[in-house]
Automatic annotation (TrEMBL):
Pfam families: F420_oxidored, P5CR_dimer. It catalyses: L-proline + NADP(+) = (S)-1-pyrroline-5-carboxylate + NADPH + 2 H(+); L-proline + NAD(+) = (S)-1-pyrroline-5-carboxylate + NADH + 2 H(+). InterPro entries: 6-PGluconate_DH-like_C_sf, NAD(P)-bd_dom_sf, P5C_Rdtase_cat_N, P5CR-like_CS, P5CR_dimer, Pyrroline-COOH_reductase. The gene is proC. Its main location: cytoplasm. Belongs to the pyrroline-5-carboxylate reductase family. This is Pyrroline-5-carboxylate reductase. It is an enzyme of class 1 (oxidoreductase).
Length: 273
């Protein structure tokens, strides 16, 4: 199966790297293109066997499955450019959350899927969100599922939950890396522990906690209960968190949903025109 990547920015490159490193696709079966050609060429320096195109249409012509990894407001223009190459037997996969599959299907005659990856896929881990278009064939559902399982766990998501699921799966690593960084800096400022050592400790803790959850040893509440000894030090720290967090996470989801609504309106205008 030939793979096409249109857009090798952050997520497009991560997707290409994950697919190649996992062995899901061989280098000679992948073609990439980017508006700034140097970014695609940088990927080729790491994976010399891949093909680099100058135009998106070349990728659409070459590939069986085309991953559209461009910004939401750029997608319509690219889609119009490649539409004539999207034959019925092919599959178009968009990785941007504001664009619905039914919008893509107004232009693409092939199977259409929306897939929302995560930076965790670079470690061949985490979750990838999937929404299938109405016209998506069962064959392409199976093929994409097999690809995704090489780099992550696929979870099918309904339209009304796309934003909150994306916040958890795709934006979550940024949110929690920020919290972890603040945790480390507070430790450094309060105790003068070396920042590098504290970062290594915190990173190891987070990875270990992830393994406890992945292997099913504890749920989140059970983990807290096991670590918190009645009247102990951890409990005092939990009290601070309980008093200090307030509505912070609810405000976070409100902010991301408000921006998402804005993006939806802009995309809707493009696909109506």
């Amino acid at each position: 199966m030939k793979i096409g990547i249109i857009g090798t920015g952050n997520m497009g490159r991560i997707l290409a790297e994950a697919l190649l490193d996992s062995g899901a696709v061989e280098e000679g079966s992948l073609m990439a293109v980017n508006r700034t050609l140097a970014k695609a060429e940088a990927l080729k320096k790491v994976y010399p066997g891949i093909h680099v195109a100058e135009k998106a249409a070349e990728v659409a012509h070459f590939a069986d499955i085309i991953f559209l990894c461009v910004k939401p407001l750029e997608s319509r223009g690219v889609l119009m450019e490649i539409a004539s190459f999207l034959a019925e037997e092919k599959c178009l996969v968009s990785i941007t959350s504001p664009i619905r599959t039914d919008q893509l299907e107004t232009t693409a005659d092939c199977s259409v899927i929306r897939m929302i990856p995560s930076i965790t896929n670079r470690a061949l881990a985490g979750v990838t969100l999937v929404t299938y278009g109405e016209k998506c064939s069962s064959d392409w559902k199976t093929k994409l599922g097999e690809l995704i399982r090489k780099i992550s766990e696929p979870i099918e998501i309904e339209q009304q939950y796309v934003r909150v699921a994306s916040d958890i799966v795709s934006c979550g690593p940024a949110f929690f890396s920020y919290l972890l960084q603040e945790f480390v800096l507070a430790a450094v400022n309060e105790t003068n522990i070396d920042e590098e050592r504290a970062t290594n400790m915190a990173s190891g803790m987070l990875i270990g906690m992830g393994e406890l959850l992945r292997k099913g040893h504890y749920t989140l509440p059970a983990l807290q209960e096991k670590v918190c000894v009645k009247g102990g030090i951890t409990g005092e720290g939990i009290k601070v968190l309980e008093n200090g967090l307030g509505d912070m996470f609810r405000d976070l989801f409100r902010a991301t949903h408000a921006k998402f609504k804005e993006d939806l309106e802009h995309v809707e205008k493009q696909y109506r025109s």
